[in-house]
């Protein structure tokens, strides 16, 4: 895992600009980020992907980021 420090309004560019993550604000332990990505890139919150009660669609199961806990 790569760990980076960023200040407000600074960005992280991934895959030549296909994904851009921007720090919007930080208050206490909460950080708001903005994610800009190409239309063919699916973005999901981690707790939805790894939740045992989450029912994955066939498209999600085929994703390289899908992890089944069953």
Would you give an account of this structure?
This protein is mainly beta and about 70 residues long. The chain has two domains: about 40 residues, no CATH class; about 30 residues, no CATH class. Helices cover about 10% and strands about 30% of the residues. It is built from two helices and three strands. The protein is globular. The relative contact order is 0.14.
Alpha-beta classification:
mainly beta
Number of beta strands = 3
Largest sheet: 3 strands, antiparallel
Count of runs of 4 or more consecutive helical residues: 2
Task: Provide the residue-averaged pLDDT.
Answer: 80
Helicity range: 10-25%
What is the CA-based Rg, rounded? 15 Å
String of helices and strands: EEEHH
Low-confidence stretches: none
Beta-strand residue fraction: 25-35%
How many structural domains does the protein architecture include? 2
- Overall 3D shape: globular
Distance between the termini: 25 Å
The order of strands across the largest sheet is 1-2-3
Task: Note the main attributes of this structure.
three-stranded antiparallel beta sheet; 70 residues; single chain; 2 domains; mainly beta
Topology, element by element:
Layout: E1 11-14, E2 19-27, E3 30-37, H1 46-49, H2 58-61
Antiparallel strand pairs: 1-2, 2-3
Brief account:
The chain is mostly beta strands. It contains 2 helices and 3 strands; from the N terminus they run βββαα. The protein has 2 domains: 1-39, no CATH class; 40-70, no CATH class.
């Amino acid at each position: 895992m790569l760990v980076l420090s960023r200040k407000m309004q600074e960005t992280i560019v991934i895959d030549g600009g296909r994904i851009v993550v921007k720090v919007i604000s930080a208050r206490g332990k909460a950080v708001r980020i903005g994610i800009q990505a190409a239309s063919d890139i699916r973005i999901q919150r981690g707790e939805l992907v790894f939740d045992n009660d989450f029912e994955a669609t066939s498209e999600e199961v085929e994703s390289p980021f899908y992890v089944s806990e069953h």
